[in-house]
Amino acid sequence: MTDFLYATCLVGAEKLLKAEMARRYPDLRPAFMRPGFVTFKSERGPLRVSGTFVQSAGQSLGKDEPATRAKLPKPPFGLAVYGPGLEPQELDPLRETLTAELGSTPLPELGPGAQVVDVVVLPEQHFFGVHDHDPQDALHPGVYRPELPPEAPSRAWLKLEEALRLSGAPVKAGQRALELGSAPGGAAWALLSRGLSVTGVDPAQMDERVARHPKYRHLSRSIALLEPRELPAADWILSDMNVAPEQTLQHVLRLLETLRPQGVFLTLKLKDERAARMLSADANDLAARGFEVVGTRQLPSHRQEVLLYGLTAAAAAASGLHR
Description:
By secondary structure, the protein is α/β, with parallel strands linked by helices. It has helices at 14-24, 66-69, 92-102, 156-167, 186-193, 208-211, 245-255, 273-277, 279-287, 313-319; strands at 3-8, 29-34, 37-42, 56-63, 78-82, 115-121, 126-132, 176-180, 197-201, 216-219, 236-239, 263-269, 293-297, 305-311.
């Protein structure tokens, strides 16, 4: 029996998504593609795919027409309306219309395993799909509505907030963070606002509000010129440096010889397709340093970059998401 699956990704990441699916699910065959949206043929029946570049995925029911709507599950089911490259607010009128037409149930009222109807909005038509509801799927584009606060120094604020939302890392006031590549200070601002103390390492200039914060310490040097013993103990290590992924890993692994954080959050720049293919090896390098939970994900706020994160067993248990 042939089934069709769909996966959405960030616009521009379609090639990386298809390559990842070919490695992880060799039986799948690409069928239809538009910016941010790819369908696949599956001879193995229904299958929900996952991966670094997958923003959402499920069983594809087809374009919006009466025959497709006849395939929708019986209530109760949830509804997620989203479109690659579109802001959630742009789709509010359509979401309200479809909620009334289909009689969907609000997602917070659904239990795990209930079905969610996905409506993927493309320029020429809408596509319907369905997936099993998972309350822990915190970054699903039909649910998550990211918004950068006007006071945030940079979009690194969003990247960190999304990383914490995805991982469930138990970040709390009174802890200490070390950030490599901290300028101009978006991620540092997010952590300071949560009550953490932050040490930032970057030769570039910080936003004045961050630099003046009483819980912020700035080291205006390259991480390559710092010895681990010069750095304070840290509960969390972050990195968002504009260097090749192997350089980021090299610097962080060197620090892990001395520092014992609860978790790390590394933004890796994808300079080429080889960097994407090496993500599994990068994750293995972190796992070998004692991190119980290791994951990779291209976040909604990312461009040509991905998140690599690791949590110790204690941090994973405290998160409540990795039992």
